Amino acid sequence: MKPSELPRRAGVGFKPEHFAAIDATSQPIGFFEVHAENYMGAGGPPHAQLGRLRQDYALSIHGVGLSIGSMQPLDADHLARLKIVCDRYEPESFSEHLAWSTHDTTFLNDLLPLPYTEATLAQVCSHIDQVQTLLGRQMLLENPATYLLFEESTIEETEFLAEVVGRTGCGLLLDVNNVFVAATNHKLDPHDYLKRFPVQWVREIHLSGHSETTDDAGARLLIDSHDTAVKDPVWELYEELIARTGPIASLVEWDNDVPEWPALRAEAEAAGAILRRAAERRAA
Questions:
Q1: CATH of the domain at 221
Q2: 182, 165, 117, 174: which is closest to 143 by C-alpha?
Q3: Tens digits of per-residue pLDDT, 81-135?
Q4: From the centroid of its chain, how far is CA 142?
Q5: Is residue 1 in some structural domain?
Q6: pTM for this prediction
Q7: N or C: which end of the chain has fewer CB within 10 A?
């Protein structure tokens, strides 16, 4: 099984509107990430642009539609299309979410939470085994941003993720913004969560912005919206994490209200500066 091997640098999620600016000159970017589902067509401008970028940059393919946490079988057609994309581009990494998004024949176009139980654990591991066997490569599993907790959960999220790794040999994608969003929503300590996270299996980190609103009871509620720059508390958590782990491939996501390329590049450069400081401290 081919392992995930992204460079331990900062990357960004590729947006087609940035292609001309990116292609005009060499960029200080370690890798680009794309959503697999955007490249499941046979050809056209999406593949022309990504093929050009692939010549010069490492690539991470991030799935949003496998429904790894569903209690029903994985969609065989979706899996087949995913394999075609991965075979075509040979990415350094492939990742998906710890979530579900299908019910019977309906695709819900959302990343929905799941209870952490032995039954769920067995199903998630079975699905990951199926994906990794088909693709012939290691999959990274991303921790979710959540807005509710299940009474039937019997396993802590960090323990659940560690057990998945132990049973399947997959790696982990640690989304720091998701940690902050979920911890704030559930009135937990994000620093404590990170201390318990099995960071030895993390092969990629995500950073993004979030928005804030209130729930029906008037309580503070954070939304993993990917529509702003990375917020200061998330940067602080990230720097704390990297000081402990050393450099890990780190991606800035900005999927809604996308800015011009220089603004997104600046976010990646900020992450890159944190990675360099950590590397210098370890080398001293």
A1: 3.20.20.150
A2: 174
A3: 999 999 999 999 999 999 977 565 555 456 778 999 999 999 999 999 999 999 9
A4: 5
A5: no
A6: 0.95
A7: C
